[in-house]
Write a structure and sequence with these properties.
Layout lengths: L2 E6 L2 E9 L5 E3 L4 H5 L19 E4 L4 E4 L2 E2 H7 L2 H10 L5 H13 L7 H7 L6 H15 L8 H25 L12 H10 L10 H14 L6 H10 L5 H13 L6 H14 L4 H7 L22 H17 L4 H14 L2 H5 L6 H11 L7 H21 L28
Antiparallel strand pairs: 1-2, 2-3, 4-5, 5-6
Helix pairs in contact: 2-9, 3-18, 4-7, 6-7, 6-11, 7-8, 7-18, 8-9, 9-14, 9-18, 10-11, 10-18, 11-18, 12-15, 12-17, 13-15, 14-17
The structure holds carboxymethyl coenzyme *A.
The site of carboxymethyl coenzyme *A (CMC) has 20 residues, from α17.
Length: about 425
């Protein structure tokens, strides 16, 4: 199968077919408009590929997710987050020396410019940390403007990964009115973040190793998910050759929405609402099916997965284990489990193949670690950053990539003559 045919009116067009390494099939339509004058129309891009990519493979029917060929379960179990960042960005697992250098660079670039601390003074105390994160990441471009010098991209990649966690932890400290805690060079990526979040100058604080390994796992599970809404935003913005910081900011903003990364915050808000309403989860499963009601089961459904989201499976097990280890009894975990059980056996959810997604259980884990609900999407953003960076880098190094510029079918008024205001 090397070509596909489209018959439009009297004419037949032959279009090339592209087959990926996992046998995914795509019809290449780039030249179609030039040949026929027509476009392909696909709102929401359900059947449209925007690029060829060698980073992440998802088989939504079978619930498979792999980064650069490695199964997500194995990476979440055995790898460190910096190792996965390196793998995603540079295509191969680092050897020992490469990992040491990369991790060391990530540590040494963790500080933000002292002047940037003044920006925090200008934000209101109740500012959403996603607003702060996006503004601060974009403002990094004022400190590190593009010069085109060799090695600049790699350095900016390190800066982004290293500083984002500091920016995020400072946003939290700002929201609770505590002094900022600076990064410490003897801590791992995850431990450094937790220390900046929870340490206070007045007393000693040691990062709980359970929290450290759990955060490492969560960050890995979020690290990439191919052409989702935020990654597509990064690619689209980056395709105009906007700088790396501006491109990443577009990803953070896209992630914020409750249909995307913002769902982890929305899930906890939903579970709390159900719990406070007496815990009648069955009522909410029915409500989610009522087309006259806006309510949806947050943390359920996915554009690509028509089977269990493999990340949700890992997180469900992790949530139970971690809460047990920590001796935490969170009634929201019970509500979540009951809700899931009912939904998975309900015809509406079964027919539409709606399963829990990555956001369904992650919030329960973050809660147990003491991370406030408004920070959940920030946690997702920290995890997804290497994914956005890998796609940005892949696109910028691909000589065949052009500026992203979709077409449309115009449905407004046909050409008409301007009427002066006195005559209208
Ligand atoms: N609760 C109730 N019904 C749902 C849900 C849900 N969570 N999700 C989808 N449906 C229904 C939808 O109403 C539609 O029904 P019908 O065929 O009768 O019109 C059908 O299932 C297909 O859904 P869709 O809206 O066409 O699916 P989509 O691929 O456009 O949207 C989604 C995917 C994730 C935006 C959607 O499932 C949703 O809004 N879920 C809740 C929000 C959420 O959990 N988002 C996180 C996604 S995973 C992590 C991430 O991407 O960041």
């Amino acid at each position: 199968m090397s070509t596909a045919k489209i018959i439009l009116g009297e004419k037949e067009y032959e279009l090339p077919v592209v087959v990926g390494t996992e046998n995914e099939v795509g019809i290449h339509t780039t030249k179609f408009r030039g040949q026929s004058g027509a476009i392909t129309l696909d709102p929401g891009f359900g059947s449209t590929g925007s690029c060829e990519s060698g980073i992440t493979f998802i088989n939504g029917e079978e619930g498979i997710l792999r980064y650069r060929g490695y199964a997500i379960d194995e990476l979440a179990e055995k790898a460190s987050f910096p190792e996965v960042c390196y793998l995603l960005i540079y295509g191969e697992l680092p050897n020992k020396a490469q990992l040491e250098k990369f991790s060391d660079d990530l540590t040494r670039h963790s500080l933000i410019h002292e002047d940037m601390k003044k920006f925090y003074e200008g934000f209101p105390a109740n500012a959403h940390p996603m607003a702060i994160l996006s503004s601060m990441v974009c403002s990094l471009s004022t400190y590190y403007p593009e010069t085109g010098e060799p090695g600049e991209d790699d350095l900016n990649i390190i800066r982004l990964l290293a500083k984002a966690k500091t920016i995020a932890a400072f946003a939290y400290k700002k929201s609770i009115g505590q002094p900022f805690i600076y990064p410490k060079n003897d801590l791992s990526y995850s431990a450094n973040f937790l220390n900046m979040m929870f340490a206070v100058p007045a007393e000693p604080y040691t990062v709980d190793p359970i929290f450290e390994s759990t955060l490492n796992k969560l960050l890995i599970l979020h690290a990439d998910h191919e052409q989702n809404c935020s990654t597509s935003a990064v690619r689209l913005v980056g395709s105009s050759h906007a700088n790396i910081f501006a491109s990443m900011t577009s990803g953070i903003c896209a992630l914020w929405g409750p249909l995307h990364g913002g769902a982890n915050q929305a899930v906890i808000e939903m579970l709390t609402m159900i719990h406070n309403d007496g815990g009648d989860y069955k009522k909410y499963v029915k409500k989610a099916q009522d087309k006259s009601d806006d309510f949806k089961l947050m943390g359920f459904g996915h554009r690509v997965y028509k089977n269990f989201d493999p990340r949700a499976r890992i997180l469900k097990a992790a949530a139970g284990e971690i809460l047990e280890k920590m001796g935490v009894n969170d009634p929201l975990l019970d509500v979540a489990r009951q809700l899931e059980e009912v939904a998975l056996n309900d015809d509406y959810f079964v027919q539409r193949k709606l399963y829990p997604n990555v956001d369904f259980y992650s919030g329960i884990i973050y809660r147990a670690m003491g991370i406030p609900t408004e920070m959940f999407t920030v946690m997702f953003a920290l995890g997804r950053l290497p994914g956005w960076i890998s796609h940005w880098r892949e696109m910028r190094n691909d000589p065949s990539m052009r500026i992203g510029r979709p077409r449309q079918i115009y449905t407004g008024p046909q050409g008409r003559t301007f009427v002066p205001v006195e005559s209208r």
